[in-house]
Predict the 3D structure of the following.
Amino acid sequence: MNDLKIDGGQQATLKKFANVDKKNTEGFDKVIKGAINNVNKLEEDSNKSVMDLLSGKADIHETMISLQKADISMRLFLAIRNKAVDAYREIMHMNF
């Protein structure tokens, strides 16, 4: 075990981010509203795609892709929401 060595190993340098522009950062509420709007738009697009399929204007493949996009985005959004709620509950149970 004594003969194991790592040659040339140097500590990674950390970059300083002193010039970060904090004025362009978005708030949490804007990020969440944007995500909700994105999920809503995908849901509306999938509904329109189904209506187009029923009227013969769209292909089944396009409709299924649109439905899967809406489904995946909704599942992801719900998973993020659940994690945020769990984190909030954990913070509320902390003793300071």
